[in-house]
């Protein structure tokens, strides 16, 4: 059976029409998929907003803020003393001149007292304060997978040991004090120390503490 040119043209036209329709359908599907993706994105944004709303807590009253921020205030009080003494020592190393009102022996003793007080401070924290906080707060967990604040203690103490050994040798006359060398010893742990002093107070701040503790529990805290 022969096929006329007209029949061929009709077949081609139908095929072309079919391809055209497929392209339209595919185009519509692609547009639909894009639209669905946009909808999903919007839904994700809405979900995140809802999560933030759930996380958002009502504003604390002045009285409640004082209760929840009490540990941060106490901690910052101690930390400010460490900051002040550190600054006195570090300024001397930067200027290559110890304070005029301090003799060499007094200056060395200032450095050693700073290290002694800081070690005592960390000891009290780890024995009496952090274990209580760690019951609910991962920021103060100790052990194999210790929290960053505890790891910072260890790093700080490594630098403290180096600084203490040098100051004791200077005090005992085994070596002459070089403010440049002392500055290098302090640089070995200064960054982590200052980060720790700030980060620890922040962790004890009212907005963080209220997520874990009641007002009654805050009043019973060991600090």
Automatic annotation (TrEMBL):
Start-end of Basic and acidic residues biased regions: 1-16, 34-55
Pfam family, one: Hemerythrin
InterPro entries: Dimeric_xanthone_biosynth, Hemerythrin-like
Protein name: Hemerythrin-like domain-containing protein
Source organism of this protein record: Botrytis paeoniae
Domain of life: Eukaryota
Limits of the Hemerythrin-like domain: 73-201
Disordered: annotated span: 1-55
Matches recorded under Gene3D superfamilies: nmb1532 protein domain like
